[in-house]
Design brief:
The protein is mainly alpha-helical. It has two domains: 1-28 and 36-115, Serine Threonine Protein Phosphatase 5, Tetratricopeptide repeat; 140-202, Serine Threonine Protein Phosphatase 5, Tetratricopeptide repeat (Alpha Horseshoe), CATH 1.25.40.10. The chain has helices at residues 50-62, 66-79, 84-96, 100-113, 118-130, 134-147, 152-165, 169-183, 188-202. The chain is elongated and about 80 Å long.
């Protein structure tokens, strides 16, 4: 087995665009393919092949059987701590359950297992931002983009961080423009943000005070 074709090295692409709204949970290698036919899935014994266990836990998650999914991913994480995917999925479940500290721990373990896990770095960025660790959030987003520079969700998250939390309008403008380029300029709200920032960044600086010496 290799990292490129083993599902255990994959993670769910559940990325928040603006830090609050989320896309459907998908597999990054086949984003339009359903992984479950809707039938009830029961997790089998731990002796089962780990790839099969992963698929069953993933199917349980798709069916919103969160306790079942958590049990499956937890078992895999315990038996195969070298795999990044189960840890990332546990982190996503923890983040959505508002268990921020536990989620961060799982995402950190995920990137330790697989330093090229761009999805886990994006989630770390969102959670660090929620913890008001803006420097940590910036570094996590930048690492995610280093690994996958064409991910519009991460580009937008970084732009919002620069715009709203770090007060770096010029940097935010670059990221917003990149986001519009990647998405075909379809987001009207982002277009409005760009226009507002263009006004700020191109404004003429105030003139120095006049010399009032008599």
């Amino acid at each position: 087995m290799t990292r490129s074709n083993n599902p255990l090295w994959l993670t769910l692409a559940a990325l928040l665009l603006a830090g609050c709204a989320s896309k459907p949970i998908e597999r990054p290698d086949r984003p339009s393919e359903a992984v479950s036919d809707g039938a009830e899935t029961k997790l089998k014994t731990p002796a089962k092949d780990p790839n099969t266990q992963f698929e069953e836990a993933l199917a349980a998650l798709k069916a919103k059987k969160f306790a079942e999914a958590r049990a499956g991913f937890s078992l895999l994480a315990k038996e195969h701590p070298e795999f990044s995917g189960p840890l990332t999925n546990l982190g996503i479940l923890d983040a959505k359950a508002n268990s921020r500290t536990v989620a961060i721990g799982n995402f950190l373990r995920a990137v330790q297992a697989n330093p090229r896990n761009a999805i886990a770095y994006n989630w770390l960025g969102m959670l660090y931002r929620e913890n008001k660790d803006y420097a940590g959030a910036e570094q996590a987003y930048l690492k995610s983009l280093e690994l996958n520079p064409e991910n519009p969700a991460v580009v937008l998250n970084l732009g919002i961080l620069y715009d709203v939390y770090l007060n770096h309008p010029a940097d935010a403008l670059v990221r917003y423009r990149d986001y519009q380029r990647l998405t075909g300029n379809r987001e009207l709200k982002v277009t409005a943000w760009i226009k507002a920032l263009e006004t700020i960044t191109t404004a003429t600086p105030p003139a120095p005070p006049a010399n009032t010496k008599s």
